[in-house]
Structures are given as structure tokens and as C-alpha cells.
Amino acid sequence: MNENLSSFKERIIKQRVAVIGLGASNTSLVEYLGKLGVNLTVFDQGTREDLKDRIEAVKDYNIDFCLGGHQLSRLKGFDVIFKTPVIRPDIPELSEEQKNGAVVTSEMEVFFDLCPAEIFAVTGSDGKTTTSAIIYEFLKEAGYHCLLGGNTGTPLLSRIDEVRPEHKIVLELSSFQLMTMKKSPQVAVITNIFPNHLDMYKSMEEYLEAKKNIYRYQDGNGLLVLNYDNGITRGLATEAPGRTVYFSRTCELESGAFLKDDLLCFRENDKASEILQQKDILLPGNHNVENYLAAIAATRAYANTDAVARAASALSPMEHRMEFVREIGGVRYYDDSMGSSPSRTMAALNAFDGRVVLIAGGYDKNLSYDPMGDVLVEKVKHLILMGQTASMIEMALMRKVIGKYRGMNIRITHCSTLKQAVDCASLSARPGDIVLLSPASAGFELFKDFNERGNLFKDYVNEL
Asked: How far is CA 10 from CA 14, 38, 253, 276, 284, in A?
């Protein structure tokens, strides 16, 4: 057994352990710790009814539950506290316990401490889930035993016992997971950086600092893959402790992965190799070309051209990410519920040649929607809006219509529910049209998460 893992198990069963938040990753964590016989207390704002399925999953273990609001006042006397990623580390209750000697950590931090295998990790404002999946497929086709997990995938701490040094681990890491990390992966990828989650962070600078933890603790053997086309990420190379490789969709690089004449290429030591033809990528949109380039740069030393080609032939659009739902009367419906920021929705719109019927809007993350204005005018024929951000998205469009696009005819409709929005879109669309759900906003106001929003959209479309 991994000596670090053996030591961890011996230590943790003697300690008082708290877990804050019973989300997907922490439910798996609670189950894993419960099997070890750890003395656990779980805190969550939800009620027993809200959490009944997750409580049922861990009912066989020695667990005390502190449920409902304001329960963190009882967070006292613990040796180890596992927090859910979306809870800030500087809330008073955690700060007070740290002063009293408690170790505040997370499922992902402990996985990094215990993992004996090489880790490939991906972060970024957009594209991290898809890029992680591409890297995983490249490595798997190259013959490696791989595990894929992280932000939206399988929580991997519960599988740590099966990880061997020769395995490859691929992780998607959110800024929330990275915020308190003190270890970095051997291979780090930053797809891009745009303003996001400014409802949770004190500033854009704090958000960026969290992202930097993906490479901050690398040693000289580490690899950092950066997007040359993104101004923020391009400038991070000077801070990298190890080696940096760029990728670019818009220019031919002297070194790194790039697109040239519909060919995805990689150049090193002044020699350029053709890796993949763009037409062989089954994922739509230029943003997915960028995701492929990032994955090629990350795995060039591990996966040859044949492995990349085999993986590309098997990779289809992921759920809620430019996912084709169905065609009705010549109208094609796409679910891009994962498009929860302006930059993601702009990328989705640019994946289509014509102007679309767009359903957008949701929870306000304190983001600016002004950058969407030009793309909305050029790519949208009917804008259907809902949620807190509806008026902000409308104003981003109207500023352009009143200004440089004076006279453009774009229909705008406000709806109170997603069902109304889908019905409105179906009445508006004509044969040959595209109806796209890409909200440019989070869904917390109306939905549990982007999965629920996307699944409801598909249900409503399938009912038409």
C-alpha cells in the first residue's frame, strides 16, 4: 500500500472530523471516511428532506448530522475539517477553528497529497471539462490506465486505493477547488481566463490568484500549458516554475500546438508535425479546436498521432455542451446549458454559420455582458430572455443596435420560465433555424444547477 495512504488512514480514524457540505464530491468523501470508521459530523444548510438520498447513501456509518441554516456555530473542537469548494476559506467559523489547531482541507487537496500517480489537471474559465475529457481519451488510446475526475466528474479520493504509480490521473479543477491548494499537478493546463464567479470572489485579481495555484507549486520538471491567444494566460509564462508550452488557434507558433491550414500541428526543436485534421474533430466550434490544441500540447510526450486520431473519432459532444437535442420541422435544437458565462455563450454562437434563436439569462454573477453585444447582433435573430440577467443582456444588445448596428431587426422576448421560453422559440423558429439554449449565466435562481436546467430544456423540447 502507498505509505502516505496507510499513514493517512491510521491518523484520520483517531481524529474528530467535520465535513461541510453534502454535495456530490463530499458524499463520496463521507462514504469513504465512513468505511474507514472515522468519527464524522456533517454540516449542511439543507434539510433532512432535501438531502434524503445522500443521507441514505451513507446511513450505515457513524455520522452525526447538523442540518439547516446557521449550524456552523456548532463547528467546534474538530481536528480536521473538509470544506466544500464553494465555501470561502476565510469565513469566521473556519478561521476560528484554524486558530484552535484544526486542519481545514478538502477532498481534492487530500487526493493530491495521497496520489502516487502523475496528475494532468485542467482549469480555465471555459473549456476545462471538454479539454480534460480529450486529454483522458488521448492518454487512454496511448495505452495508459487513466482515471478522470474533479470538478464535474467522479470524486477520486474514494478510489485512491486503486491508484498505482504507473497510472495517469486527469482532473478538471475549478477556481474554488484551487483556491486553497498547496500542491500542483505535474502537467497543468489553463485553457483561458475571463471574468467569472465575481459574485463569489472579492475581485478579478483574487479569482486569477486562485487559478494560478494550478502551477504555483510545480517544480522544475513541471509542464504548464497556456493559451497564447488569451492575453491573461499568455502573460503567466514568466511565473512558471517549470517548462511552458503554448497553444494557439490564430497564429503559427515557433514552439507549441497551433492551427495551420485546417491542420492541428505541434512544433518542437524547430520541427513541425501534423497531428490531426480539423475536419476530424467531431465537436463543433472554434473553441473546441482550442480545446484539442491544449490537449495536444499537454500530451505530446505521451500520445502519438495515431492515438490522437483514434480518440478524435470517438469523442462526441458532451452533455449540455453544444449538445444536439432533436430536429423538429426543420428546426434544430441545441442544449448548451453549461454556457454559464458571456464568453461561453459567445463561443457557442460563433459555432453556427447563421443567426439563431437564443434562449439566455439566469442568475447574476456580477459579470459584464457588454462584450456580448457585437456577437448578439451578428448571430441572433430572436433573443428570448429570462432570470436576473435578462435586462443586462438586453442592454448589451441594445447599445449596439442603437449605435453601430442602427436599424438591425432583432426580436426580443422576456419569459418567466424555461417552458415558456422553449414554447416561444418553437413558435418563432422556421425551417432551417437553430434554437440554442446558452444562458450566459448561472442557473441558481431558477434551477439547482446547469444539469437540471439542461435536462429540463431537453424534456421540454422533446415534448414539442
From this structure: 7, 10, 50, 49, 49
Q: CA-CA distance, 8 to 439, in Å (whole number)?
A: 43
Q: How far is CA 236 from CA 13, 56, 287, 299, 315, in A?
A: 41, 45, 21, 20, 30
Q: Could you tell me where the DSSP H helices lie in 117-273?
A: 128-141, 175-178, 204-216, 231-234
- Which element (helix H / strand E) includes 277? strand 271-277
Tell me: pLDDT of 403 over 60.
Answer: no
User: Which residues are 171's β-sheet partners?
Assistant: 121, 149
Q: Does the structure show a pLDDT above 80 at 407?
A: no
CA max distance for the chain: 71
pTM over 0.90: no
Last residue of a domain, one of 295, 314, 333: 314
Q: Which domain holds residue 132?
A: 109-314
Question: At residue 424, what is the residue type?
Answer: C
The strand order across the sheet containing 168-172 reads 146-150, 168-172, 118-123, 187-190, 223-227, 243-248, 256-260, 263-268, 271-277
Residues 34, 14: Cα–Cα separation, whole Å:
13
Give the cell for residue 120. Answer: 494532468
116 and 99 together in one domain: no
pLDDT digits over 163-216, tens only?
Answer: 999 999 999 999 999 999 999 999 999 999 998 887 888 899 999 999 999 999
Q: What cell was used for 230?
A: 488569451
- Co-location of 290 and 162 in the same domain: yes
- Count of the separate structural domains present in the chain: 3
Q: Are residues 169 and 290 in the same domain?
A: yes
Q: Where are the alpha helices (DSSP H) in 246-341?
A: 286-299, 305-314
* CB burial string 2-18: b at 16+ within 10 A, e below: beebeebbeebeeeebb
